[in-house]
Structures
1.
Amino acid sequence: MRLFAAIKDFSHAFIAQLTQIDYARACVLCAFKETTHDLLGVVRLMRDPDDLSGEYAILLRTDWKGRGLGWALMRLMIDYAETSGLKRVQGQVLWENSPMLAMCRDLGFEIANVAGEAEMKFVALELPRAST
């Protein structure tokens, strides 16, 4: 659901975009299975040019959904955003992704419709503890 469509093959350019990180503008947090080192989930936070907000994206392995990993990654990402001085974290979620929307709601995100995109929701979390 993170990519908003089923994708069977990833191009080299798309994989490069996901794996070549600009650390001045992005944070990527990964969760690995301790015993096998398999990648279980990833959350990214891309700082906007205004350096006041950032857009997040989260991706979990299907067999690890519903185990609390998404919550842990989201909380780590929010903590990072706060300590790095961001005022807001935002993202887009498919309306049918009810577990993600419920988690966002529980974490304090505001949820709004996206104009002209009936299948999409915009989520935003104001960070009151962010430094100025």
2.
Amino acid sequence: MNKRYSNGEITILWQPKLCQHAGVCVRMLPNVYRPTESPWVRMELASTRELIEQVAKCPSGALSIVENKKE
């Protein structure tokens, strides 16, 4: 089951079946990605730019970005 996390500007899509648990997300943004908590992604603790840069480095492609439509 895929999970979605949004900060209003973007949505991060996490596909757990693709995740290799390389830890890149946790190492880059440890305040945002907290695997022992629920929800484990706290997007409000980073800027949109930081989130986009981090997701781009996900080696498995388990994390991706969807830009939210502006009204």
